[in-house]
Amino acid sequence: MSTQAARSTTILSVRKDGEVALGGDGQVTLGNVVAKHDAVKIRRIGNGKVLTGFAGSAADAFALLERFEKKLNEFPDNTRRAAIELAKDWRTDRILRRLEAFLAVADKQASLIVSGAGDVIEPTDGIIGIGSGGPYAVAAAKALLLHSSLAAKEIVECALRIAGDLCIYTNTNIKVETL
């Protein structure tokens, strides 16, 4: 079992009415076995002004999260610039280039996806979904945004529950943070 890749996660972020919410499920899967039900894959960093979530290899994600925090210290109050600098390092550094993870990053102004391919993507609609259940959660969030009066946090919670019902690598042990 130890040679199998860890699969996990649905991370979702939604913006609505000046609020941004970012949440994640708690499941970690090794092969066809659920290894953990209550992992916490979201963090509040940058003196509490930035929300992050990660998908992919846990060790890789933590290494990237640590580097992202350093970039935020270099570029305080400029989350976009910190994300771009991380992506540049990630893409050009021989060791970082092998890391397999995605970061979802949100502050009051921006919602970003940062990938190891050097991408920094800011979705037009402010909805981010990464991880195995990301597409399910994004679809649910888009429908809820259009057809409900729920707040951003409630949309994230509901959409993550829907993803947890559909994706075998996602559960409904959900944690959400808001700004």
Give the helix level as a range of percent. Answer: 25-40%
CATH topology: Glutamine Phosphoribosylpyrophosphate, subunit 1, domain 1
Unreliable spans: 1-6
Strand percentage:
25-35%
CATH superfamily: Aminohydrolase, N-terminal nucleophile (Ntn) domain
**N-to-C SSE string, H for helix and E for strand:** EEEEEEEHHEEEEHHE
Mean pLDDT: 89
By secondary-structure content and strand pairing, the structural class works out as alpha+beta
Order of strands, main sheet, comes to 6-7-8-9-10
Spatial separation of the terminal alpha carbons:
39 Å
Largest sheet: 5 strands, antiparallel
**How many structural domains does the protein architecture include?**
1
Number of strands: 12
What's the CATH architecture?
A: 4-Layer Sandwich
CATH class: Alpha Beta
Number of helices: 4
What gross morphology would you assign? globular
Rounded to an integer, what's the Rg over CA atoms?
A: 15 Å
Entry keywords:
single chain; 179 residues; Glutamine Phosphoribosylpyrophosphate, subunit 1, domain 1; five-stranded antiparallel beta sheet
Notes on the protein architecture:
This protein has helices at residues 58-74, 79-92, 134-147, 152-166; strands at 6-8, 10-16, 19-24, 28-30, 33-36, 42-45, 50-56, 101-106, 111-115, 120-121, 128-131, 175-178. It has a single domain (6-178), classed as Glutamine Phosphoribosylpyrophosphate, subunit 1, domain 1, CATH 3.60.20. By secondary structure, it is of the alpha+beta class. Strands 6-7-8-9-10 form a 5-stranded antiparallel sheet. The N and C termini lie far apart (39 Å). The model is unreliable at 1-6 (pLDDT under 50). Strand 4 and strand 5 form a beta hairpin. It is 34% helix and 31% strand. The chain has 4 helices and 12 strands.
